[in-house]
């Protein structure tokens, strides 16, 4: 069951696009037979043959989440029976091999037979890398933006796919933008049973507002990092991180042409930035099929650019968001979140209280530890909804980064999320949760430094969540239910099974 669960989660993550598949598997023949078992270059058998991989039936995991039982759209969502809605035979890799054709190694492994465990490569603070490394950062991303990916994207949902002609090329970079978009925003099936327009009926986010948020993005970054290494022929390159909690004057200190680009007062990037010429994708709401059938939508057309990058750090609307969003989160807020020993708490979404995950993701107040929605008092005083840490940074950037589903269009996204992952790693090591999550060193990477390394003290204040007694058993309840749900395949909680030690990440047939 656990393996099945992982399949769902990982497939939901990376296979889960509007059908993004290896180009070799989108020929009419492969689509008809529902078989994606390529013969790798230089081999004679599908999936490489004995010792490397073989073609095997792919079980239909049928993802069910009680939270979605009333969401009609999900009943016909391609992701529900992923990937068997497209392919029911895929490569099952052996040993430490992985990838859709078993030519890659599972994360953290190297060598011709993937037999060697790799020495963890340090992800470095972008503010502390050489000029040459900064240049690499820009040009590596730029090359990914204009190199065609081995994966193609569908322009239609499964229901309407006629054949290979419905799949289009996409750049290595935009592939990842679209994957993130589909996982989080593109939710309308071809025949929704409800009218889209009511947000709740359309919003089926597999990557945010839930227990899977930190680990989904961890896996995502690993894939992005690998793709950048491959496209630039530099297997030792690592993603840098942006430690926004210690940014100069608590403002965007990477918003210069040396890093992600300077901007003017209208939020347009400076022409001296490498990224000024970039075009975004998927920024428009999915179009309805036509004016009368508003419950029909089309997937994002990845070939149709939607605009340029926008960024205007700190220039947020303070009435909507509050004054604190005009600067970056403070180190004390990070310290606060890292104290919470519970990974997540029921109901495992944006209203979870006293949850490390929800604090880190940013729906919980960093003084109380609790979810805080917008409040309007009788006297008219309005307290904005809490957007903290991860969410805070997205909104603060005021532009492409501020709409989470399409935020990866901005390369700053990866520097931001790399730091979020660094904070996850800090938490895993601090609270001794390596039994629950694979530490990054097992996945082949490490961080130059973790948050607050070498410091201690002040560990006791957990705001309103401090009340010690209920949570002493709550800890066990939290983990106990995680294990329970992992075993019984309930998705929203199950996503946190990702990176559990006993679970292999080499399972997703279509990508790794
Ligand atoms: C896989 O799909 C093909 C094509 O629809 C079908 O003929 C076959 O029975 C399916 N196999 C399994 C194991 O479901
Ligand atoms: C897989 O990697 C491990 C090291 O993590 C190694 O001990 C093992 O022998 C490898 N397996 C194969 C089949 O190469
Ligand atoms: C930053 O880089 C310098 C020089 O490369 C190095 O001496 C220093 O230790 C680095 N700082 C950290 C925190 O690693
Ligand atoms: C898509 O990319 C592949 C590989 O670069 C290329 O062979 C193919 O012609 C491209 N297809 C289109 C429609 O551009
Ligand atoms: C889609 O919308 C049309 C027009 O509003 C309606 O007649 C039809 O029943 C809807 N289809 C579904 C599956 O809900
Ligand atoms: C809209 O699409 C539906 C379903 O394909 C079709 O029946 C209807 O005639 C279309 N309406 C218009 C105005 O094109
Ligand atoms: C590109 O997207 C815009 C806005 O959604 C749309 O109006 C236009 O028709 C699209 N162009 C193509 C070629 O699909
Ligand atoms: C979270 O805490 C608030 C304030 O104490 C409480 O009103 C709310 O019911 C709690 N929510 C959950 C899901 O426990
Ligand atoms: C409005 O009411 C809230 C809650 O009672 C209080 O905290 C706030 O200070 C009041 N604001 C004004 C302007 O009176
Ligand atoms: C950016 O800031 C402007 C003005 O401060 C505000 O109106 C707008 O909503 C903000 N945009 C985003 C995407 O946050
Ligand atoms: Cu995200």
UniProtKB/TrEMBL annotation:
Its cofactor is Cu(2+). Residues 1-19 form the signal peptide. It is found in: Melanosome membrane. PANTHER family: TYROSINASE (PTHR11474:SF124), TYROSINASE FAMILY MEMBER (PTHR11474). It comes from Branchiostoma lanceolatum. Belongs to the tyrosinase family. It is an enzyme of class 1 (oxidoreductase). This is Tyrosinase. The gene is TYR. GO terms for molecular function: metal ion binding; tyrosinase activity. Residues 208-225, 410-421 form the Tyrosinase copper-binding domain. The chain crosses the membrane at residues 473-494. Its main location: membrane. Keywords: Copper, Glycoprotein, Melanin biosynthesis, Membrane, Metal-binding, Monooxygenase, Oxidoreductase, Signal, Transmembrane, Transmembrane helix. It is a single-pass type I membrane protein. The keyword Lipoprotein does not apply. SUPFAM superfamilies: Di-copper centre-containing domain. Its EC number is 1.14.18.1.
